[in-house]
């Protein structure tokens, strides 16, 4: 019972959860030759939805770039997304923590939708979100991921500035009630959740077995990997939005440091695969990467969650993040339209090249250069946490200055 408590009733140490995610993403690349990603599939889903309404998107340049063949249930990327949702939902049910939640301020739904649109547009402009252009992009030794990482951090900083304004937060609703309100829970519904979770887990396992038996091993692998990613992001509460937002708001650096550790593990394992013949996935480093990263970072703060955070929170029953997800699909699809119809490709991408750090710096140079960058990120995050929170930084100096003035008065 104690083991069940530790696994399903308590959240996992973020270093362990993100470290396992880094290892799993590298192994997934080694097996399939592709990476852990979600917004590309969001874009394809947007294309399918337009097709249902009679819009022919087959000639759109962006869909020719990312591919639109098949359906989500016939693509590995589709099962990564489905698996993440399923894995997160199963652990949420096993922990008896599913509950429908509607924001008290309905404006949050509109804000989340707008943030989702901006984040989805930015992610696809940069050819990847916090996963493909960040967490799994850096281990591919694609320089565009370095650009995206920095600009995403900058975008989140400005996003925090916006969400901290009074006009964004709105006025809290004050309600009369007893000083010590009685909290009641439907114990019966809570107790049945683990049973439902176990049933879902068995059905999902049966699906994996079916794919292996039907001669579709890559879909089976994607099912397994997707569910594992879903379990890890939910149990570890892995959210890139909170990683950056916490830095700017409170100086809390735990998730930021954990992500750098997880990426470091992924870098080493991915390097091994690349050196043994696997083809690294390199994306163009262009103004689109800069603008996309800024928009993505800005949007995820307005929305309240990145792609990983959005997915497990949606499975927890938080209505807001279903709206954010819809915004992501709208934004990604809008970018797909603008890629050629509005000249985005010609203006921001066309004359720029892919930069493979292994080709530029050599294998060892790329490996140790990337490790050094991640180590610097870890140390900088650690320094920032202490500087911001524990008395050596600007915030503390301001407090001391105010205190000094007060004493003089």
UniProtKB/TrEMBL annotation:
<feature type="transmembrane region" description="Helical">
    <location>
        <begin position="141"/>
        <end position="163"/>
    </location>
</feature>
<feature type="transmembrane region" description="Helical">
    <location>
        <begin position="112"/>
        <end position="135"/>
    </location>
</feature>
<feature type="transmembrane region" description="Helical">
    <location>
        <begin position="49"/>
        <end position="67"/>
    </location>
</feature>
<keyword id="KW-1003">Cell membrane</keyword>
<feature type="transmembrane region" description="Helical">
    <location>
        <begin position="361"/>
        <end position="380"/>
    </location>
</feature>
<dbReference type="InterPro" id="IPR007272">
    <property type="entry name" value="Sulf_transp_TsuA/YedE"/>
</dbReference>
<dbReference type="InterPro" id="IPR047732">
    <property type="entry name" value="YedE-like"/>
</dbReference>
<keyword id="KW-0472">Membrane</keyword>
<keyword id="KW-0997">Cell inner membrane</keyword>
<feature type="transmembrane region" description="Helical">
    <location>
        <begin position="195"/>
        <end position="212"/>
    </location>
</feature>
<comment type="similarity">
    <text>Belongs to the TsuA/YedE (TC 9.B.102) family.</text>
</comment>
<feature type="transmembrane region" description="Helical">
    <location>
        <begin position="254"/>
        <end position="274"/>
    </location>
</feature>
<feature type="transmembrane region" description="Helical">
    <location>
        <begin position="79"/>
        <end position="100"/>
    </location>
</feature>
<keyword id="KW-0813">Transport</keyword>
<keyword id="KW-0812">Transmembrane</keyword>
<feature type="transmembrane region" description="Helical">
    <location>
        <begin position="12"/>
        <end position="37"/>
    </location>
</feature>
<feature type="transmembrane region" description="Helical">
    <location>
        <begin position="218"/>
        <end position="233"/>
    </location>
</feature>
<dbReference type="Pfam" id="PF04143">
    <property type="entry name" value="Sulf_transp"/>
</dbReference>
<feature type="transmembrane region" description="Helical">
    <location>
        <begin position="286"/>
        <end position="307"/>
    </location>
</feature>
<feature type="transmembrane region" description="Helical">
    <location>
        <begin position="319"/>
        <end position="339"/>
    </location>
</feature>
<protein>
    <recommendedName>
        <fullName>YeeE/YedE family protein</fullName>
    </recommendedName>
</protein>
<keyword id="KW-1133">Transmembrane helix</keyword>
